[in-house]
Structure formats: C-alpha cells, structure tokens
Amino acid sequence: MNAAVVEVVAAVLTQPDGRVLLAQRPAGKVYAGHWEFPGGKVEAGETLEDALVRELREELGITVSADCRWITRVFEYPHATVRLNFFRVFAWQGTPHPHEGQVFSWQRPEAVEVTPLLPANFPIVKALSLPPVLGISQAETLGADSFLARLDVALAEGLRLIQVRDKSLPEDERLHLARETVRRARRHGARVLVNGSADLAQAADADGVHLDAAAAARCSVRPDCEWVGVSCHDADELAQAAAIGADFALLSPVLPTLTHPGAPTLGWARFSALAAASPIPVYGLGGLARDDVALARTRGAHGVALLRGAWT
C-alpha cells in the first residue's frame, strides 16, 4: 500500500424516492469518463464536515442542510491510496449543477444504468440498495402461523429485508419457515437472509446468509451467497465482518432492551464512532423502533434492525 493516504469526502445525495446522484469525471482527470459520487480531497486543517460542505458548494453549487456520516472505506488505486469518508445527504438548498465540467445523473442503486463506475464504488452502490429497516423473525415466541400472518402485513406495509433467525426451532421446521418466508417475500420484491449456514440458506432459496459473531470469526472467506450479514457487538467483530466480505452488519445493543434488562449497552456515542469507522453499512439493533430510522441515520447507522417492532 502507498505510504500516503489521501483523505477524501464523498457525498451520497439521496432523493426521497431513493435515487442517488452520480457524476462523470471530466476529460483531463484520472479515470476520465468514469462515474463516481461527488466529493473531493480534504484540505489541511479541515474537518470532514467542512470539506463536505465546501466540495458540494464548489462542485455542485448547493448548500448542505441535512447530512449524516455513513461508512469509511480505504481503496488503493494505481496512482494513490484514498480513504473515502462517505456521507449520506438527504437535504440541500439549490439545484445541483456542474461547476467543473461533469455530467450528472440520478440513478437507482439497485439498477444503475451509467457505466463505467469507479472501481471503489461497486460495493457502495450495492450497499445503497439495502432498505432502512430489517425485520428479524420471531416465530419462536409468536408461533409460526402468527408470525407469517404478521410478515404478510409487514411486507404489504413496505418491509423489504428479513432475517430468519429462530435458532431454537428444529432444523426441518426452520427450513420450512425459511422457505415460506422466502415465498411470501418474493411477491413483494423483498430479500430474505437465513441465520446459520450457507447450505441452509441455499436450501431455502434465500437471498443470503446471516452469521452470528462466533460463526463469522470461524470464517476465512466470504460465504458463497449473494448477500451476507453479520451480527456484531464491538470493533473487532465489525472488522472481522468486513474482512470476510460481509455486505452489512447488525451492531447491538444500542439501547436497553426488554430481552436483556440491565445489560450493558453501546449508547449512541459509541455506536456512532464504530459505524463511522466501518467499511460496511451498520444497522442499529436493540431498544429501537421503526420510528427511529431518522435518528439512527444521524448517528451513522444505515437503518434499524427490529425484532418485536417489525411485527407489531
């Protein structure tokens, strides 16, 4: 790796319908013609926030009014090693227009049509297709039939990412539950990950696998699935999740929960620090509700993961 790491801020401007802004690098620059997220180098003495505001004013002619730290990724190009500090930007004043000869395009992360993307942005685009709410199955306590009925309601109301957990169920019952969850989710375009092995996820025709921290620690390579999530509780576990190529992590417990009263929690300050340093998106889990998505984002979360709150 090159000795000098260039600090860069990158902005994910997001419309209410989920589209994000990509900019094409102009002629005369390295990787001319490639598409990227707007941003630029952090100048000496600048905070990341200051650099973001300046770059978007200079490059797009807008004033940021609502931004959140998201993730941080280091990428080694042939000409430089860059640390990309990504921000989600949900509100701004003015209309983005090119000040430096770029071409802009609003794109849906799950169906980007412009090409070629800068190599560092492929995992970013994939991560941005993740929805803000993840529901964790609760068939063990609700009963399978009651859970599936509540799943239908949640899917109809917009839930698009589900983790089938219920680890105490017999394997055949859990496989049946996973298959039924997948069947119902497919009708709504929702994704399903199964907690456990990649073999179980594949047997259920799920979209991926979700690993607990102990299972992730035993992995040296990414499971052979389209989507991989990992449950984490500290910086080391987040680092391991990223090292095996996971697409996202659940970080818990953020706040006190009914399940573990009196147990130690991360709190928002610690959660924010861990999420900002993570190279993969982080969902907050523990003591949160569906209405906490906006709050969680201001603390660096991609969104919230819910157990009880997903099915009530």
UniProtKB/TrEMBL annotation:
Transmembrane segments: none annotated. It holds the Pfam family TMP-TENI. One of its GO terms (molecular function) is 8-oxo-GDP phosphatase activity. Its cofactor is Mg(2+). SUPFAM superfamilies: Nudix, Thiamin phosphate synthase. It catalyses: 8-oxo-GTP + H2O = 8-oxo-GMP + diphosphate + H(+); 8-oxo-dGTP + H2O = 8-oxo-dGMP + diphosphate + H(+). PROSITE patterns: NUDIX (PS51462), NUDIX_BOX (PS00893). GO terms for biological process: DNA repair; DNA replication; thiamine biosynthetic process. It comes from the Bacteria. Residues 4-132 form the Nudix hydrolase domain. The keyword Hydrolase applies. Keywords: DNA damage, DNA repair, DNA replication, Hydrolase, Magnesium, Metal-binding, Mutator protein. Its EC number is 3.6.1.55. PANTHER family: 8-OXO-DGTP DIPHOSPHATASE, NUDIX HYDROLASE FAMILY PROTEIN. Belongs to the Nudix hydrolase family. This is 8-oxo-dGTP diphosphatase. It comes from Thiobacillus denitrificans (strain ATCC 25259 / T1).
